[in-house]
Amino acid sequence: MNTLDLKKKAVELRERTWQLIYNHKNGHTGSDLSCTDILVALYYQVMNQDKDNFGQKDVDTYIQSKGHAVEIWYEILADKGYIDRDDLEKRYSTFNSPYIGHPTTDVKGMEFHTGSLGHGLGLGVGVALAAKMNHSPKHTYVLMGDGEQAEGSVWEAAMAAGNYSLDNLTAIIDHNDLQITGTTDSVMRSNPISNKYRAFGWDVQEVDGNDIGALVDVLTKENNTNKPRMIIANTVKGKGITVAENRADWHHKIPTEVQYQEGLRELDAQMEALNND
Amino acid sequence: MTNDEKLTANAVIADTLDKATAKDPDLLVVTCDSRGSAGLVPFTNAHPDRTVEMGIAEQNAVTVAAGLAHEGKHPFVFSPASFLAMRSIEQVKVDVAFNKNNVKLIGISGGNSYTWLGNTHHSLNDVAITRAIPDLEVYQPCDKYQVKALFKYLLTSDKPAYVRIGKRKLDNVYHEDFDFVPGKAKIIKKGEDICLISTGETLYFALKAAENLEKQGINAQVVDLGSIKPLDTELIGQLAQKFDHIVTVEEHDVINGIGAAVASEVAKYGHAKLDILGFPDKPAIQGTQDEVFHYYGLDAEGIEKSIKKILDK
Question: In A5, B172, B212, B301, which residue has its Cα 20 to 30 A from A259's Cα atom?
């Protein structure tokens, strides 16, 4: 997919996510919109994984450590045919549904139950280490949040990844500088994150995490460093819908009807602009 | 294995895993700067490619083991029980049990076996917390024969499990190799007057107490509860109906260990009165294992006294 098509896909998936959350009055709106471009880059351009080869030997693994941004992931899995969209839209956050507020392995495309923060990077280390032992070409991708960086287990995993020179592991931090209570600097300062990972033995890249072209470039850039790669993706929480942008309280806020309609109009305008590009 | 030489659980495990490497190309040991305490140095020297050192980071060791298992590896994580079952418990719950990753968690130096190192290092709550985790099996073997049989089972099972072992050479309860059956308790001495149920190192003391009582005309049955979860609810239910008195003995806090596991079945199925012998619900006194077992009445002499008191004899 070319960059323009990826951008259109991101707008389309933001709209579907916005609708899913509005219709079911449940979801981590700001978090979903923040990392949409990262997931689109991974699923539509970067990863060797699709609905047919998912779970097979040597196929890339994606672990979403910031499990709460699950609605955008559901929409991508539906769009890519892993799961049935009608089933998702009907059953999301309903009784006994597999489509709940955090990823579960009941949903095709999700390899681990996640949601408790600080677990994904360690899981990624285990998967990447096994891939090395198995001489597998599999690459492992882990998405974390920036608020999540306060979890001590993240740093145990970061140390292990550096120790074992896991150059088959790429972690991405959705760095929007906001968490549920406020700015990450006001809650628990993790900035500057880059230097910390460098000190732990990682190759660190920074990128505009809402620029799909730049994301694809950095995610596909060859890693000859013999180190795990950390991509600090500088994002805007709530990206694409003005009322939700850069607002901590939109972490899991549900739009009102007026906000919902306004959000749809904004996204439609973004799509129209891209169509005219 | 058929002689009466006493062995540590560590020695039996290291030997069993060493032999298993020939058959299982995916077998790994995951250590947390714990290979020495686990008696695994000969193993890790002989099999560096089967060794994953995670440093002093028990939480990450469990999570990484889950990732390894997800990719088809068969990791056995070795760490002191006090850290593995408490510090790492959320990783055990989420990454291992909930995610159904085939990780075997081996809690070494369990119970009171760190003696003078004190309560930071004792694990007297590990059974309580691990048996409350869905889809996690919990075992506490009593001697070299059972350790060997248990590990033979663990090497072929694809289910997550927590095993608690101690440090010292184990007295032999059994006298020959046997097959370990998860979820099955074993009657190791038949009796009519009272039933003793124990697990791990205290099982031997319960057996000795029963043998001493026999000489005094008290006929005690002794049951081995090496499989704590799955629990042999059928046998415990039968025991609860047959006996007027059941006594559990464990190297564990009296809260939520095997006493509580047995109690829930006794309350459901039987009329038996139940006494739970274990460590009191407070920081344990410090001393050698023998001194501490004696202090809390968990050695053969203490168990014998408790039974006589319960039976008013």
Answer: A5
B126 and B190 part of one domain = no
Structural domain boundaries enclosing B235: 186-312
| In-domain check, residue B3 | no
pLDDT in tens, B199-253: 999 999 999 999 999 999 999 999 999 999 999 999 999 999 999 999 999 999 9
In a domain, B175, yes or no: no
Which of A123, A155, A166 to probe the B interface (max B CBs under 10 A)? A123
- CATH of residue B200: 3.40.50.920
Mind listing the pLDDT tens digit of every residue in chain A (277 residues)? 999 999 999 999 999 999 999 999 999 999 999 999 999 999 999 999 999 999 999 999 999 999 999 999 999 999 999 999 999 999 999 999 999 999 999 999 999 999 999 999 999 999 999 999 999 999 999 999 999 999 999 999 999 999 999 999 999 999 999 999 999 999 999 999 999 999 999 999 999 999 999 999 999 999 999 999 999 999 999 999 999 999 999 989 999 999 999 999 999 999 999 999 8
Inside any domain, residue B137: yes
Residues B124, B155, single domain; the answer is yes
Q: Which of B132, B164, B196 is the last residue of a domain?
A: B164
Residues B21 and B156 in one domain: yes
Query: Is B52 in Cβ contact with A112 (below 8 Å)?
Result: no
Q: What is the 3-state secondary structure (H, E, C) of chain A?
A: CCHHHHHHHHHHHHHHHHHHHHHHCCCCHHHHHHHHHHHHHHHHHHCCCCCCCCCCCCCCEEEECCCCCHHHHHHHHHHCCCCCHHHHHHHCCCCCCCCCCCCCCCCCCCCCCCCCCCCHHHHHHHHHHHHHHCCCCCCEEEEEECHHHHCHHHHHHHHHHHHCCCCCEEEEEEECCEECCEEHHHHCCCCCHHHHHHHCCCEEEEEECCCHHHHHHHHHCCCCCCCCEEEEEECCCCCCCHHHCCCHHHCCCCCCHHHHHHHHHHHHHHHHHHHCC
Determine, for residues A113 and B91 on separate chains, whether the beta-carbon distance falls below 8 Å. no
Could you say which of B133, B164, B195 is where a domain stops?
Answer: B164
- B13 and B159 both lie in a single domain: yes
Using CB atoms, pick whichever of B49, B60, B69 lies closest to residue A153: B60
- B154/B191 same-domain check: no
Q: What number is the ipTM of this complex?
A: 0.95
Q: What is the pTM of this model?
A: 0.96
Residues B200 and B267 grouped into a single domain: yes
Three-class secondary structure of residue B194 per DSSP: strand
Same domain, B191 and B160: no
Our count of domains for chain B comes to 2
**What are the φ/ψ torsions at residue B287 (nearest 5 degrees)?**
170, -175
pLDDT tens digits, one per residue of A195-215: 999 999 999 999 999 999 999
Contact check, Cβ <8 Å, B64/A123: yes
Instruction: Give CA–CA dist B248/B245, Å, rounded.
Output: 10
Is there a single domain that holds both residue B128 and residue B39?
Answer: yes
What CATH number is associated with residue B115? 3.40.50.970
Does residue B178 belong to any structural domain of this protein? no
Query: How many cross-chain Cβ pairs, A to B, lie less than 8 Å apart?
Result: 82
Whether B303 and B206 have beta carbons less than 8 Å apart is answered as: yes
